[in-house]
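Reopening: LysR substrate-binding domain-containing protein still failing for me.
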Amino acid sequence: MDVADAKAFLVLAEELHFGRAAQRLQMGQPPLSRLIQKLERSVGTDLFKRTSRQVELTVAGQTLIEPARELIAASDRALESVKSTLTGQIGTVSLGFAGASSNAEVAALARQLAIKAPRLRFEVQSSQFADDSLKKVLDKSLDFSIGLWEFLPSELDALHLSDDDVLIAVHKNHPLAKHEHISMRELAQDPWINLPGGYNSALQNRFRNLSLNAGFVPRRNQTVPDSWTVMLLVGVGMGASLTLSSVASSVPADDVKFLKINDPTNTPLPLRLVWRRDSLNPVLQTVIDTAVDLFS
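Support: Ran it again with your exact input. Result attached.
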């Protein structure tokens, strides 16, 4: 029994009249009779008892009602799943992000997608550095990434989410901690604690540029794996660090003072959502549209 047979059977079971059932099915009465006869031959028994005055369901016909309904419901679910997939409402999408600088945006996007596309599976992967997740978008291991980058490859499209101010973190008892704004030159003799650099590391590129603008090369530069470790070491007085306003607001650092930098080139860094422009996954558009509504 296929779906068309099941629908015809159920309509006739409801109407118990070939004429009315044929009218509802928008077909002639003889084709409906032939369809029911073919169905009866396939199941090996009569489904309806026919007389000149009435049509009645047999016991076998009554038994077939629920399976016929289940078949139609399964077909409807399958069609809906296909339609939802094509419109980006069902599927799986993966997003990478790098730590504290994008925690708030990732959480906001996940919450909104749960409302807008509840059947969408949203997989989130955290990596230590933005460059790592950017490479995964390029090699198609991830669909999206959120991060701070100086440059983006031509294969990617991007959506600007927010701006992150670049600040200096010092111990609260540092001689300069009483100021709100300082110049990089005033820290020329201080040891520095920074994250690992890289070709596309926005924060470390900014650190190099600001140091050069101030006319010095850091005399000591300790590299640590993440922003939490940076704040821990700054908080015990082991050095200063270039950091972000998002880190200042999300990483506990009671013994750290965050200062603004007197340098006109120290503009905010853009936090962006990126994806491959050649992706054919329709789910991506749902995520992009959601992000546009949320952050634009």
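The radius of gyration is 33 Å. If you still see a failure, please send the error message rather than a screenshot.
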